[in-house]
Write a structure and sequence with these properties.
mainly alpha, 84% helix, 0% strand, elongated
């Protein structure tokens, strides 16, 4: 979904949009503070609102703002309005991720595994997540050079749409459920699938 590239390379995105280096670096500091504030709000919300709905809404907001940001970056050289739109879209994108997918993903990882393998499952999931983070971050500069600043973010937006489909198809609600009830539900689902396979 490109969240790490936007956070890590925000100054580059600002300068590519036509803003000065001083403004870009100073804005990056404020974006970091903003990111923390929105994350705290997201943590507060996810214990009161459906987590699946938050993921879906967050995915749509990220996809839309990435597409808008792509348009803004494509036209920032000849239009101050387009540059402003690109920066505003980036801020909304960061808020959308930090308030939904960021905290919810880490919470749900801890809820998805049975107690007897929870430590191993959490460790494996965290390792996969940070490996993906590294790959996305390292591939961003060459991909940006190859595809261009506008087109690349369209690709990340498409991945957001795929993430929305994944939540619809595969993710179940955990808000308001105890770890024991989640584990029992998963075991019941596994038993049903095993029974369906054996009956065939």
């Amino acid at each position: 979904m490109g969240c790490n590239t936007v956070l890590y390379y925000a100054p580059t995105i600002f300068t590519d949009a036509g803003f000065g280096v001083h403004f870009a670096l100073l804005s990056h500091i404020w974006i970091g503070i903003f990111n923390v504030i929105v994350t705290v709000i997201g943590i507060w919300l996810m214990n009161r609102v459906s987590r699946r709905k938050m993921l879906i809404v967050g995915g749509w907001l990220m996809a839309i703002t990435l597409f808008i940001m792509s348009w803004g970056l494509m036209h920032s050289a000849e239009s101050k309005f387009a540059a402003d739109v690109a920066v505003l879209s980036m801020v909304v994108y960061i808020a959308s991720f930090s308030g939904t997918w960021g905290p919810i993903m880490w919470t749900m990882i801890g809820e998805m595994f049975p107690l007897n393998i929870r430590g191993l499952g959490n460790s494996f999931s965290a390792g996969v997540n940070w490996t993906a983070n590294m790959i996305v971050s390292l591939t961003f500069p060459p991909l940006l050079s190859f595809f261009g600043k506008g087109t690349l973010f369209i690709g990340y937006g498409i991945f957001c749409l795929l993430a929305i489909w994944f939540v619809h198809a595969k993710v179940f609600e955990t808000q308001g459920k105890s770890l024991e009830s989640i584990e029992q539900w998963l075991r019941d689902q596994a038993a049903k699938r095993a029974g369906a396979k054996s009956s065939k």
